[in-house]
Automatic annotation (TrEMBL):
Protein's name according to its UniProt entry: N-(5'-phosphoribosyl)anthranilate isomerase
Keywords assigned: Amino-acid biosynthesis, Aromatic amino acid biosynthesis, Isomerase, Tryptophan biosynthesis
Known pathway: Amino-acid biosynthesis; L-tryptophan biosynthesis; L-tryptophan from chorismate: step 3/5
Source species taxonomy: Bacteria, Bacillati, Bacillota, Bacilli, Bacillales
Keyword field contains Methyltransferase: no
């Protein structure tokens, strides 16, 4: 069954709703964003969550010693490095790494392969993180990428996630804007998204 990550959660109510709806991973954005959360907020939230849901912190070009400090403080299971972090930076993380890469054309394919041996998952995203923009999933076909390391993101919704899973064959899918209404997480959309993704194969 495909892993599902619901990203950009900002409250305990959203986090527990996503967890109870069957999310495997939940994401908290520490980077600058309309969904940005503080260390204190995430600490309060994570204390009340069951252990089985994996907590992911999303960072964009934050110095790795700060990423490690936050990961320790709020007990993150993964860090999602969503900027231009180098392979060396990924290696310095104290917790497993999800490296996000924006696929915009065939010239960006090579970098995917370079990161593969040093990260736990590669998250392939559209051109603008957190904006609901998708990319051409056919690009993935040309990467000799172990599908058990690939999480697909970027513009996924309950309407396209089934097709995305059939075409890209990822181990997991990640969504943020696609489960929101008027900029707020929508619990009905979260449930629908997870149900469809989990039923896809
Ligand atoms: O959600 C954000 O605001 C964000 C900010 C900075 C880096 C990543 C961010 N979100 C990630 O973007 C992708 C795709 O989001 P969407 O579904 O297209 O809205 C997802 O991986 C989020 O983790």
């Amino acid at each position: 069954m495909v892993l599902v990550k619901i990203c950009g959660l900002t409250s305990y109510q959203e986090a527990i709703a996503a967890t109870e709806a069957g999310a495997d991973l939940i994401g908290f954005v520490f980077a600058q964003s309309k969904r940005q959360v503080t260390v204190e907020q995430v600490d309060q939230i994570q204390r009340q969550l069951p252990d089985h849901v994996k907590k992911v912190g999303v960072f964009v070009d934050t110095p790795i010693h700060i990423v490690n400090q936050i990961a320790r403080l709020v007990k993150l299971d993964y860090v999602q490095l969503h900027g231009k972090e180098s392979i060396l930076t990924c290696l310095k993380s104290e917790v497993p790494v999800i490296k996000a890469l924006s696929l915009q054309g065939t010239d960006s394919l090579e970098q995917v392969l370079d990161y593969l041996p040093v990260v736990d998952y590669l998250l392939l995203d559209g051109p603008k993180p957190g904006s609901g923009q998708t990319f051409d999933w056919r690009l993935i076909e040309s990467i000799p990428l172990a599908r058990d390391k690939m999480i697909l993101a970027g513009g996924l919704t309950a309407d396209n996630v089934d097709r995305a899973i059939q075409e890209a064959i990822p181990i997991g899918v990640d969504v943020s804007s696609g489960v929101e209404t008027n900029g707020k997480k929508d619990l009905i959309k979260i449930k629908q998204f997870i149900q469809i993704a989990k039923g896809a194969r």
